[in-house]
Amino acid sequence: MTNFVQFHVLTTYGLSNPNRDDMGRPKQAVIGGEVRMRHSSQSVKRALRESTFFSNDLADHMGTRTKRLHGGLVQHLLSKGVAEKKAQESASTVAGIFGKLEAADKETGEQIATTLAFISPDEWKLAKELAENVAAGEKLPKDKDLKKGVLRRADGAVDIAMFGRMLASDADFNRDAAVQVAHAFTTHRSVAQEDWFSAVDDLNKDDERGAGHIGESAFGTGVFYQYVCVNLDLLVENLAGDRELAAKAMEALARALSQATPRGKQNSYAHRPRAHYMLAEQGEQAPRDLSGAFFHAVKGENLLESSIKKLEETRKAIDDAYGPCWAAEAKLCVGKTGTLDELVAFAGKAVRGE
């Protein structure tokens, strides 16, 4: 049986615009006939990866998503004393393993990849070593063997293990995501609002009137439901069997879910919320989200309390009908029960089997 941990998170956002659409407005969705604010799963995953719990605490185990591997390899070879022309050629050979490259820039000689590649620390190290070998004139193996010398199906890259990757150059080295992240959405009706603003030119003369700039900025607010499902067995497999690293990754994920947020317009709205409610469930049954609790928009004077009540009622109703899909749980409800440290410890123990 597969071992899962599921997170259900309720977070209240004040006036903010963390995740914008192509018009600069807060992303929205119509659910149950009502307009809701929304944060895309992509923006949430980036916020998790960039949180200090990952970017600092697990810095040696984080991949790099980039089109600029070629330039990085060129700089590495130049630092080793390789002539620039040879460095450019060697870097092209190795960078091409990760995907097709565009034509070289006429001024810098850099070749940008046509698609982003998610590269693990181990793969960066191996790519540099191979580039050095190429520059030294060593004969290269054929295509498949060449890729096997650099690309990895599993290693110590926590973010790639969690969120997966698609490698356009060779699907054999894709990685299935161990962590599924849903779009977050408000549990209640929430419509974007407009803020008209103006800015004054500081160097205006005393007799000059009028604004130096005028514009509009949209924002929204609400209680957001976030669902995340983790396949613990796949997480350990993606990390080449390193169960302790997987446990640390789960602890980082639990902490990040409590406070990481997309950072759009953060300087304008200073949105830095922390989750009011977090429920973690561990078990071997088929997982299920609880978004159905909010298909009909929550109403009432206290939207947060009503959302918590609706979530727990829906959970009980589903468990009564299907049987519990969890064998253990941990809960944080600010002002009522649990602590973040307890929930984080629960997430780690679920991997360690404690």
Summed up:
This protein has 354 residues and is an alpha+beta fold.
Structure description:
This is Type I-E CRISPR-associated protein Cas7/Cse4/CasC. It comes from Bombella apis. By secondary structure, the chain is α+β, with helices and mostly antiparallel strands. Helices cover 35% and strands 21% of the residues. The model has no long low-confidence stretch (mean pLDDT 94).
Residue share in helix: 25-40%
The topology string of helices and strands comes to: EEEHHEHHEHHHEEEEHHHEHEH
Distance linking N and C termini:
17 Å
Uncertain ranges: none
The overall strand count is 11
**What gross morphology would you assign?**
flat
Strand content: 15-25%
Structural class: alpha+beta
Report the major sheet.
9 strands, antiparallel
Overall pLDDT score: 94
* CA gyration radius, whole angstroms: 24 Å
Instruction: Count the DSSP helices.
Output: 12
Protein name: Type I-E CRISPR-associated protein Cas7/Cse4/CasC
Pfam families: Cas_CT1975 (PF09344)
InterPro entries: CRISPR-assoc_prot_CT1975
Q: Which features does this protein show?
A:
about 350 residues; CRISPR-assoc_prot_CT1975; two-stranded antiparallel sheet; 9-stranded antiparallel beta sheet; Type I-E CRISPR-associated protein Cas7/Cse4/CasC; 12 helices; alpha+beta
Summarize the SSE layout with pairings.
Layout: E1 4-16, E2 28-31, E3 34-39, H1 41-50, H2 52-55, E4 64-66, H3 69-79, H4 84-95, E5 117-119, H5 121-135, H6 143-148, H7 158-163, E6 179-181, E7 184-186, E8 193-199, E9 213-231, H8 232-238, H9 243-259, H10 266-269, E10 277-283, H11 303-322, E11 328-333, H12 340-352
Antiparallel strand pairs: 1-9, 1-10, 2-3, 3-7, 4-5, 6-9, 7-9, 8-9, 10-11
Helix pairs in contact: 3-4, 4-5, 9-12
